[in-house]
């Protein structure tokens, strides 16, 4: 017995029919609007929240109050009270003339982990930046020096056009034959670090740093434990020469200016010798006592600066 084949299924089945919704059309439209409004409100909240915590991509410039902070580290355990009192008086009188601030730190204030005491100048400068965040410039000046000229720092060195007129371009960073030279294309506005050279190299006894994020980076780099623990012959001085030559980020903000701009010496064998009218005289390499005692070498200049400031 034969049975009939079942009917063939169509190769074109009827289209899928969506399940009918039990929600009336008007309610479906209302629900869609509510979801859309809620999503927009959520996105707006996220935008406002992100704006509240977003920081500006460009750091805020200091207000310039005070314009300059003069920083000097004093060794009260080694040098005489009268001599150090004259250093304090010199800095304070000069700062009062121009609305600057002075910050004195002392040897022993900071834990250098066994590093030479000369490293105090670097951490003193970092301390000053923290204490005076609105200052425009910081001038580190060793205790072996007097300020001899009452003119303002802005007129003598710190204005951008003045820096540009003074900076020595395409010049060996460590004379006489360093292959690393100062950049020839920099402008005064590019500069954040101003210092001089003497007969032995870069001179870290008197220099200027412009306040800002770069200054913090520079000082933290200079004060790196690796450099403090390394046996550089001149401690922080040779560490400075190293980082300036091998860190383009630092070299690109550096201006070397003539030594007599703010770093004249009292002896010709060390560098350019002071003449009347120079801003600073330093007895570089002077000692606490003996033939090269600082107080003895600077005695004449102590009298001179008092006279100049009273004129």
TrEMBL record:
Location of the region described as Disordered in the Swiss-Prot/TrEMBL record: 1-22
GO molecular function terms noted in the UniProt entry: alpha-1,6-mannosyltransferase activity
Organism of this sequence: Colletotrichum gloeosporioides
Any one GO BP annotation for this protein: protein N-linked glycosylation
Family: Belongs to the glycosyltransferase 34 family.
Biological classification of the source: Eukaryota, Fungi, Dikarya, Ascomycota, Pezizomycotina
InterPro entries assigned: Glyco_trans_34, Nucleotide-diphossugar_trans
Name recorded for this polypeptide: Alpha-1 2-galactosyltransferase
Gene Ontology CC, one term: mannan polymerase complex
Keyword terms of this UniProt record: Glycosyltransferase, Membrane, Transferase, Transmembrane, Transmembrane helix
Keyword Membrane: yes
Transmembrane segments: 34-53
């Amino acid at each position: 017995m034969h049975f009939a084949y079942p009917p063939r299924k169509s190769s074109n089945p009827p289209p899928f029919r969506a399940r009918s919704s039990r929600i009336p059309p008007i309610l479906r439209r209302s629900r869609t609007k509510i979801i859309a409004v809620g999503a927009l409100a959520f996105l707006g909240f996220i935008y406002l929240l992100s704006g509240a915590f977003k920081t500006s991509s460009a750091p805020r410039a200091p207000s310039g109050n005070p314009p300059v902070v003069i920083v000097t580290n004093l060794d009260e355990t080694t040098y005489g009270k009268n001599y150090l009192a004259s250093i304090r008086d010199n800095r304070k009188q000069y700062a009062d003339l121009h609305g600057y601030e002075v910050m004195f730190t002392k040897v022993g204030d900071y834990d250098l982990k066994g590093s030479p005491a000369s490293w105090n100048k670097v951490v003193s400068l970092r301390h000053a930046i923290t204490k005076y965040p609105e200052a425009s410039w910081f001038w580190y000046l060793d205790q072996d020096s007097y300020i001899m000229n009452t003119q303002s720092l802005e007129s003598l060195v710190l204005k951008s056009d003045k820096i540009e007129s003074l900076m020595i371009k395409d010049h060996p960073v460590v004379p006489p034959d360093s292959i690393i030279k100062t950049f020839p294309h920099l402008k005064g506005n590019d500069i954040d670090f101003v210092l001089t050279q003497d007969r032995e190299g870069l001179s870290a006894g008197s220099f200027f740093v412009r306040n800002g994020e770069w200054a913090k980076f520079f000082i933290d780099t200079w004060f790196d434990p690796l450099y403090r623990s390394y046996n550089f012959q001149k401690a922080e001085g040779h560490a400075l020469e190293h980082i300036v030559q091998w860190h383009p980020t630092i070299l690109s903000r550096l201006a070397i200016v003539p030594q007599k701009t703010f770093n004249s010496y009292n002896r010709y064998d060390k560098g350019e010798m002071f003449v009347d009218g120079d801003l600073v005289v330093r007895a570089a390499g002077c000692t606490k006592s003996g033939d090269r005692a600082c107080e003895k070498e600077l005695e004449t200049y102590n009298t001179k600066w008092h006279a100049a400031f009273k004129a």
